């Protein structure tokens, strides 16, 4: 099954959350953006006394260190764009911003097998509140060549970021701090809080 080749990537407890420090409108359109300057990002509340800057942060889109970016660049991944980012600590206005890379993911695939998955959904059935069991539709995934499904957001729930095992292996080769991978077959929405 193709689902066995996929992982959900998430930040861990060591990574602080980030948020936009400027308008983000051009990034929500589902296509590449034209950026000439680094984007501005800040550490989000609650801010620790000494925020730990690790290799992987979320806002909820990934913001990664240079070494993870260096692992991703040679893969030439369809549907993502690495955008330079400056991350500042609003509690320390005189500190130098940290250099990071925002991963703009514009590849989104409708491939949730709603019949086989276990979902917490709204009465209308249009909103997913939680996923207790994630099942991907292999038939839909087979419609895309591998290079077009290496990294993608689950269209039915954009908070779920799926990466192919080859991408996971490339990231893990950097021994990153701040991220976790869960096999798609074993992931559920509550894992985030464990």
3D structure, described in words:
The chain is mainly β and 194 residues long. The chain has one domain. The protein is 10% helix and 34% strand. The chain has three helices and 13 strands; from the N terminus they run βββββαβββββαββαβ. It has a six-stranded mixed beta sheet with strand order 2-3-6-7-5-4.
Give the terminus-to-terminus CA distance.
Answer: 27 Å
Low-confidence stretches: none
Oligomer: single chain
Count of helical regions: 3
Strand content: 25-35%
Q: Give the helix proportion (percent range).
A: 10-25%
General shape: globular
The order of strands across the largest sheet is 2-3-6-7-5-4
Major sheet, described briefly?
A: 6 strands, mixed
Q: Count all strands and give the number.
A: 13
Assign the structural class, choosing from mainly alpha, mainly beta, alpha/beta, alpha+beta, or little secondary structure: mainly beta
Order of helices and strands: EEEEEHEEEEEHEEHE
């Amino acid at each position: 099954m193709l689902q066995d080749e996929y992982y959900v990537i998430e930040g861990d407890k060591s990574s602080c959350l980030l948020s936009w420090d400027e308008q983000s409108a051009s990034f929500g359109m589902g296509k590449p953006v034209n950026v000439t300057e680094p984007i501005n990002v800040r550490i989000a509340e609650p801010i620790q006394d000494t925020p730990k800057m690790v290799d992987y942060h979320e806002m909820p889109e990934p913001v990664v260190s240079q070494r993870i970016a260096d692992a991703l660049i040679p893969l030439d991944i369809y549907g993502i764009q690495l955008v330079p980012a400056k991350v500042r600590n609003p509690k320390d206005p005189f500190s130098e911003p940290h250099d990071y890379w925002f991963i703009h993911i514009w590849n989104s695939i409708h491939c949730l097998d709603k019949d086989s998955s276990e979902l917490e959904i709204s009465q209308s059935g249009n909103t997913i509140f939680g996923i207790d069991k994630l099942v991907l539709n292999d038939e839909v995934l087979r419609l895309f060549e591998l290079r077009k499904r290496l990294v993608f957001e689950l269209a039915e729930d954009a908070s779920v970021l799926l990466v192919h095992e080859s991408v996971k292996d490339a990231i893990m080769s950097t021994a990153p701090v701040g991220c976790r991978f869960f096999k798609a077959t074993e992931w559920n929405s509550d894992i985030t809080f464990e």
